[in-house]
Amino acid sequence: MDTKTSAENLKQNKTEVVHTNCRACGHAGCGAFVTLEDGKAVKIAGDKKHPISKGYLCRKARGFIEDMQYHKDRLLYPQKRVGEKGEGKWERISWDEALTTIAEKFNQIKAEDGPESVIFGHGTGRSHHRFVYRVANAFGSPNVLANGHVCYLPRLAVSKQLGMSVPIVDYDNHPECIMSWGSNTIKSNADEYIGVNLGLNLKRKPKYIVVDPQRTQLADKADIWLQLRPGTDVALSMAMMHVMVKEDLYDKHFVENYTTGFDKFCERLEEYSPEVAEEITWVPKEKIIEAARVFAKIKPAAIQWGVGIEHGVNCADSDRTLIFMSALTGNLDAKGGNVMFGPPPGLPRMEFCGTNFHDNVDKMLGGKKYRLAASINRITPHVIWDAIETGKPYPIRGMIINGSNPLAVRANTSRVHESLKKLEFLVVMDIYPTPTTEMADIVLPAATWMEHNNIADYWKSHGYIFPRPKIVDAPGEAMGDVEMLNELGKKLGFEDQFWDTYEESLDYILEPAGVTWEQFKDMDYLRNEPEYKKYETEGFKSKSGKFDFYIQQNADWGYDPLPHHQEPPESPAREAEFVEKFPLVLTTGTRTAEYFGSEHRQSKLLRKMHPYPLLNIHPDAAAERGIEHGDWVYIESPRGKVKHKANVTDAIDPRVVAAEFAWWYPEMKAPDYGFRECSINFLTDDKNVGPESGSTNLKGLMCQVSKADEAPAAYSESKPELGIA
User: Fold this and answer.
1) Least crowded by CB within 10 Å, which of 159, 235, 383, 581?
2) Which domains can be identified in the chain, with CATH numbers?
3) Which pTM value belongs to this model?
4) Which of 303, 276, 308, 119 lies closest to 212 in space, CA to CA?
């Protein structure tokens, strides 16, 4: 794109091109140029010089500009509920009344039952979550509801436990072997280094291994595709390391000089021969051996992991074993391997968030049970619903949620819905109405990423931060979450911990980097230059000062100090009567290019591309049930039944089906928005969770599939609205 516009053109057409960092998806990170005409955003294009995105922009960015930024359904003013929850009756109020009401109610709850009786919540990878934690810290509540128990944060906790930051792929130094594990990167555009970097590297023809239950576009490009049973990642990774150790393919210098517990780890590896792993994972032992040899012998090699490995009871050990494999092969913190790039310039993020959580771990819901999650100040959602239902260990009375739609994205939706109904006081801030806003007592209108100033990628681990300046004015009285939280912090009585203007907080973050927000907003980025093999001079920040294969802290907490495969609570190994009723392995969360979580369903452009939720099912499994491609089908688990459309494909094992998640129909009438008919999370379980982080089992469930008589009512009624054939 030619970003230069002549002065004459600008004058005639009132056209301007602004450089920014896109956040059309939840994680963001792509450099972009937004074209304005008469002050309105009309076009977006990628920045080819951006060090992360390299000119790439996904279709979500186009959908956002074309029909979401100025969508007719945007929330414009603060509102309070009138009548019962779910009736859809609202009254407009001022921002001062809204924030005063919230502060008075929260402080009342704090005085009567303690600050821990208020929950602070946020969505995934948001730029505002630093403020959520800062307000929660100031208020004194250790309870923050997020999705981190199954998304990225377990690897952050495991990395911290091992004395380092999250190791990510060093694509700029060209790995000669890449292994994508539970990561369909070109669809999901994973954290730190989005899909374009994998794509550019694959053009060089490195050896490529894909570990995925489904044959994706990436699997088709792979030299080796390991089609494992969902939820068995640990057994597979342990078997690969079994081969590496048995065949002396590991980095002896690293092991002998920089590690502890290797002998005990090798004893555990004895339990995971390729033959044993084949029985557990369904991957032929010959392929396990081949993949292990390829990854161990080629240097440098890197693992591109995805959150799929964290969607189950084996979450922490899945993360742990992939880090172990990188270390064992000499690729940890090596050029072209998995590197700890460290924090970006500026104030360390946790210093901004505050560290009071560590003082309240005894009061944190589930803090004593899920110690790994508590070590990074996270809780698993089910402990909140437990406390709302029982009043134990203390009552949960208030909650504020920023940028999240729990009724679409949290496991066991029926339980989430009942809990939110019982909640005494709920505040939700969002850009559009959602099923969750319909449960609120107060709804606050959020500004989009183009309508307020912010620092992009501050929470990531690639070492960069980028400016995201305000481009357009927000409609109505919409306000950025960060701005609202700054004002709420003051209303709650903590004026000394917040700022007169929100932009002053950006100066505070940037001060250690020696720049102000006014200076930074015109810069391309700031970055700390990477260093490699830092452990050779600095060691690891673990208690031993080395890389620990045997985790003594886990032993102290009552967990297994060595990785092991735990069979998912619902699996083909269950009793025959259960498996007969629910014979198919269900994996949920299949990624699409059009959507991010529950976002973007308002976009007509994106809905025309992908109008309904799909269930991938093998032709043999479909034929057995009288299902043809394109049929609407019921998916049923012990917790419920929903409808998806059948995508009959041989890209999946006949014993497995794969469903998309977070579906709802924004064009339908409140309060339901049709989500009861289509959200796969009505089928997922939130009780049988991972022992260390409380990770929800989303990818090892069992289900039955049958042909439905007709399309969902919500879908049928929405077709004219969206122009879908």
Assistant:
1) 581
2) 7-57 (2.20.25), 79-151+348-460+470-502 (3.40.50.740), 166-342+544-557 (3.40.228.10), 576-722 (2.40.40.20)
3) 0.94
4) 308
